[in-house]
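For reproducibility, we list the full input for the zinc ion complex.
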Amino acid sequence: MVIDLEPVFNCPGKYVDIDYTIDLTSEEYGGAFPFAEPVKVKGRIQNECSVVELCAGVVFPFVAACDRCASSVSRQFDFEFRHILAPSLENEDSDDIICIDVKNFNLDELITDDIFLSLPSKFLCKDDCKGVCAGCGADLNREECRCKKEVDPRLAVLQQLLDN
Ligand SMILES: [Zn+2]
Ligand SMILES: [Zn+2]
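The corresponding predicted structure, in tokenized form, follows.
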């Protein structure tokens, strides 16, 4: 969505409400397409005493493979974003202020960047996911590791000698 924010910038007190969806279903993340449904975006861009602020909340289901056990997990994410917007002419680049093209403000771009920056670097099915054993491939959440039981045949012979 591209918005003309000139009326907002020119008039203290003025605001625009945002209530729409962004389709990120074709966005790749971690080699998959985890944005199963369009992202719901709700918020407001308001000029308060000549400072234009964007407040937006997003809600979306995220479907991805657990980083440890690779099982498919679906989770509902919601994030809130706040930014001070300034005309790009002022060129005040900082972490707090986002310089924009006031007449053609690309909200999708900003929100999409925000979402990607907010996603967790590790995605786990549960905090204490035990993962998959590198030796036997057992899903340690559901089954026991088989490594210990499968004794190497050569070691078994040795074990027998020791037992005798
Ligand atoms: Zn897991
Ligand atoms: Zn194992």
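The chain is about 15% helix and 35% strand. The chain has two domains: 2-129, 132-164. Both points were considered when choosing residues for closer inspection.
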